[in-house]
Every structure is written in structure tokens, then in C-alpha cells.
Amino acid sequence: MSLTVFIADDHAVVREGLGALLSSQPDIRIVGTAMDGREAVTEVLRLKPRVVLLDISMPGLDGIESMRQILAQQRDMAVVILSMHSSAQHVFHALEAGARGYLLKESAGREIIEAVRAVHAGRRFLSPKVAEIVAEGLGGRSGESPLERLSRREREIIKLVADGHSSAEIARLLNLSPKTVDSYRSRLMQKLHLSDLAGLVKFAIQHGLTALE
Length: 213
Fold this sequence. Notes:
Blueprint: E1 3-8, H1 12-23, E2 28-34, H2 37-47, E3 51-55, H3 63-73, E4 78-83, H4 88-97, E5 101-104, H5 108-120, E6 125-126, H6 128-138, H7 152-162, H8 167-174, H9 178-191, H10 197-206
Parallel strand pairs: 1-2, 1-3, 3-4, 4-5, 5-6
């Protein structure tokens, strides 16, 4: 079965270039493209590709808002954000909104195939430059690891949440009820003194619970 991909970017040369690279792989098929966010949302929901590449800066709707609208209806879709910005703030904003990958445009040509395969397999992918900046921004650890205060089940759940799975998906994977998963999430946030999903993702990356690539 083909790995279907949709590309949304307001620059034709980017759409065509990335499309040509991905189409060179025998198992990858480009099912559609868009030049603005609203068109991307409409077409992605119609075509239901396995992976979506979204430019972070597009007319109409930006990539983050387009992704939110797509994931509201297709939660399991793997989205990679394309961006010129490599700051930790931009990256965590995208991850918090549900992105599985974050790819810098300057290196997208070299990394696009690896990124698409990674997110399709359920892993995260960050451009190496972005991963380095994010890791530096998280800082070092000292003293007792907070992981030691978590049970095995809590570590499983925090990893799945950080990997972008919904409570319903986690419940199905771990044979729990969604209500139980929500209780675990709430308890984890309190135990780790985290206030939002972005903080949880930072924690999971810092402590090796989810991969940067």
C-alpha cells in the first residue's frame, strides 16, 4: 500500500521540489497539494492522506491553525510542519498543537523522505538543527530524576501523550477507559508541576521518554 502524502505551501517551487523528491520513492505517492491553509484543510479532509506537510506561514490560515482544524476531525493524521524558524518556542508551539514533525525549509530537501517515514511509523522527527536547539533550551538535569516518582503505567501514558496520541487512542492501546487515562494525565500534570501540554512534551523529551527524531 502506498504511503500517501499531501503538501501545502504557498510557494510553487517548494511544493514541486518536495513532491518530486518524495515521488522518487516507489512506495510514496503525492495525492494532493495546496497553496493556502483553507484549501489545505478542505483537501486533506477529503483525500485523507497518511502524512501532511504544512508550511507554517500560508495565506488564509497558517500551518498551525490548519493543523488544528485537520486534527480536530482526523486525530490520527501525521502532520509535519515546514518552517524557516528554528527556535524552541516555535517548535514546542507546533508540537503542542499536534505536529509529529518539524522540518526546517533550509534542510527539507535532504530530510523530507526520512521525516515522512518517521512520522508515518509513529515517531517524531525534528530537523537535527532544531533538535540541538531544543535540547540546549531544556538545560541539564540535577538531583533526583522526576521519573523515579512515576509508576510504569504513568511513564507509558506520558510517552503516549507526548507522542501525540489522544486519550481515546491511549485507552485503546493500554486497554483502559478514556476516563481513566484522563485521570492519569491530570495526576501526572500535578505530580510533575506542569501546566500545559507543551510542558509535558518538554519533560518527555528531556527525560528520554520520546525521541527527537
